[in-house]
Amino acid sequence: MRRGVFLSVFLRIAIALVFVALAGFSSLPHRWIIAGVLVIAWAGISAFSLARSVRQDVTLLQNSAAAIPERQVGEITPSFSDFDGLARAISVSSDQVNRSLSEASESRHELEAMIDSMQDAVVAVDPAGRIQWTNQRMQKLIPGASFSSAIRIGHALVQTIRDPEILDCVRTALEQRVVSDGRSTSLLPGRIFEVNVSPMPGGGAVAVLHDITRIEQVERTQRDFVANVSHELRTPLTSITGYVETLLDHEASLSQSAREFLTIILKNATRMNRLTEDLLVMARVESSEQELHPAPIPADILVRDAVQAMSGLVQDTESILEIGEISSAEVFADTDAILQVLSNLIENGIKYGQARNAPVCKVIVSSRDVSDPIEAVEFSVRDFGPGIASEHLGRIFERFYRVDKARSRESGGTGLGLAIARHMVQTHGGSIRAESELNAGSNFIFTLPKAQNLVE
């Protein structure tokens, strides 16, 4: 029969008092001493028995609480009913922990199944760079590894993956706690991977490898096709342009209709020539086939040379091209490439930067020193025309994107000038952007690092 601790104590005290009463009525000499000894002996035996029973129940409860993480808690029945509340609390906690662990385990299995189903390779490392987990795709990329084998789990990533680009990205994410992007070409022969490594909140990092080999092949094929077609079109277009110009030189023998037709032919042939030239330049820039020869050059010389090179277009269009504030700091750049960038931006400003009520178009070219985030020179080409709507600003540097398609075709634009400028600036380690407000003009800005940064 189960009983409470206080009830057990009460019973033992009552029995002790009975012994005292019996001893009091005894006729034996020294009866009080004998009674005291009996009481003390009985109290000691009772205390030892009670402590042993309580200790057994406490040990049972401790073992049950310790077994909660291992989910091995069974039915708890202590000897004393006073511990029933604690036993029930442990049982409830055990059930809750079991449910939470079961849900966490199911969530982990679902997450692992989803990551395993990805076509991208994923690997997680701890703060020390040791592999914690990989999906099946990653296991297939690692030579000699299998998904069922745990040999590489816990090993350093550098012992498994020898690719320096991937290791640099992982090291950057672990040390600087920032997202690191890269490109791997030596993990597997003939394969190209886009690498993205993100730090985890609790330490460590997750690396995702996306196979872009097929995409690169398609883009390379497209560039080669465009370059070949553009190259083949140059000869017939040049012939057409030359013959039409020759015919127009003999105006006396041509009727009014013939002159109009030939003028239209010349205009479109010239536009096609510009398009093929821009396509060839774009193909060379994107394929990194264009050889650049960067060298230190003062920014003010670049601005002045670009303005001088556009003097013919300025005279033909009766526009105003001014030089604003300029910096004499040296930038590390290929002169011809940056002059082409400035020329493209100036030409766009002259073609599309005339205000509605202004008699002529005005463009200002300037440069200034900046130091955020690095020491650089910021070039600016500003016009005062109708401006560009905000929904177009994020796309104007895309190939063939036009804000006003009808006006662009009328002016002979190809839609490639800004795309070429962006690629050339990025090749130099700079950045380019556009700022504009409707009816307040547009400002095209690009930055180039100073030459002293590269020297240091």
Automatic annotation (TrEMBL):
Enzyme Commission code(s) on record: 2.7.13.3
Record's keyword terms, sorted: ATP-binding, Cell membrane, Kinase, Membrane, Nucleotide-binding, Phosphoprotein, Transferase, Transmembrane, Transmembrane helix, Two-component regulatory system
Ranges where the Histidine kinase domain occurs: 228-452
GO cellular component: plasma membrane
InterPro entries from the UniProt entry: BphY/WalK/GraS-like (IPR050351), HATPase_C_sf (IPR036890), HATPase_dom (IPR003594), His_kinase_dom (IPR005467), HisK_dim/P_dom (IPR003661), HisK_dim/P_sf (IPR036097), PAS (IPR000014), PAS-like_dom_sf (IPR035965)
Main location: membrane
One Pfam family recorded for the sequence: HATPase_c
GO-annotated molecular function: ATP binding; phosphoprotein phosphatase activity; phosphorelay sensor kinase activity
Protein's GO biological process: cellular response to phosphate starvation
Subcellular location: Cell membrane
Listed transmembrane segments: 5-26, 32-51
CDD domains: HisKA
SMART domains per the UniProt record, alphabetical: HATPase_c (SM00387), HisKA (SM00388), PAS (SM00091)
Protein name: histidine kinase
Record field: catalytic activity: ATP + protein L-histidine = ADP + protein N-phospho-L-histidine
